[in-house]
Specification:
homodimer, alpha/beta, Rossmann fold, two-stranded antiparallel ribbon, globular, NpdG (chains A, B), Reduced coenzyme F420:NADP oxidoreductase (chains A, B)
Amino acid sequence: MRIALLGGTGDIGEGLALRWAFHSNHDIVIGSRDPEKARSKANEYEAKIEDRGVDTKITGFENGMAADRADIIVLAVPAYHIADTIEAVEGSLHEGDILITPATGMKRDDEGFHYHKPGAGSVTKIAVEAAPEGIPVVGAFHNLAAGRLTDLDAELGIDTLVIGDDESAKSTVESLAEDIDGLRALDAGGIANAAEIEAVTPLLINVAMNNDGLHDLGVRFD
Amino acid sequence: MRIALLGGTGDIGEGLALRWAFHSNHDIVIGSRDPEKARSKANEYEAKIEDRGVDTKITGFENGMAADRADIIVLAVPAYHIADTIEAVEGSLHEGDILITPATGMKRDDEGFHYHKPGAGSVTKIAVEAAPEGIPVVGAFHNLAAGRLTDLDAELGIDTLVIGDDESAKSTVESLAEDIDGLRALDAGGIANAAEIEAVTPLLINVAMNNDGLHDLGVRFD
């Protein structure tokens, strides 16, 4: 499939782009508000994969053009840019496309990181509310450490929880997630269940901060 | 050490009692509002452990008398009974005692289970506010499936997150947790970090409900 990573020049976008390019045959399109930056990062990622002897083609475009070229559109942007990113590419979304949101909201105080639950109920729900009629939104990849994804020598062996109200779209995303070696996709139900998943991200950071030797943590349900 | 499980006739109390009695030499005291019920459950748990060829002594008392006999007091009661249980045993708490709270708050709707965050910020914080001056509260054992603990044939291989503002009390609880085979204790920081831990419990139920073959789930940070 063709996967566009909007905000794909950021760390989680880079991690997902590298993993899919390395482990699957999907076409990867990097999106950015700045097309020059998108092209330059796309070339950089492509070179990293080819250095490992895997032939791949990663392209870079302005977000709207990237979305237009893809069936799967990953909103790899901070939580506060989810709604405006969807609005900016709305005209490039077509029937059959799927939006994926991995974002979560966090705030930090002296004790550690805390989940910052938005008024909508979750960041995933913000994406649902901003998405055009008929374009399903699936939440996934919330609890993955970007640094670990980006390091292709790092083994995963962790889970990602997938939520959505469109079962067919959810099942497509589960399958895309499992195209990444070492990643297991688990169904966590509908969009209403998003907040508890998003809250795991600050928890992972707190656990890593308080235990020597643990960093870039993921989670495994067992 | 002497560990009292207040509300120890319930399922999480039974699970912790059986695991500690089976895997360690701690003295286990079952507490209940009803001393008859406490004694009867204590005998039942003791018989289960002795059936496995392990010599143990589990006693049962009314909650206040159970707390009086122990150094470690586990509040194995539902979230809405945390404060009144602490108040009921307050006169039986002594300097050096540690209160442990494993409770979380949940509500259910058509989609699944959701974390019900109390006004205090977390259920753990409710315990802190109800505890007498000088008695430290440690949050632990929030995300353990009672059914899995109770089945001594079930392997654990999972983590429990420990939080508290008294480092020495937290370290004692981490060590008690690791006395249970297959349980790893991880430090998740101070009481302010409790909500994200408590929210994992409804998440585990949602994941189990939506994936065939998964039940009594625990979590492993990796």
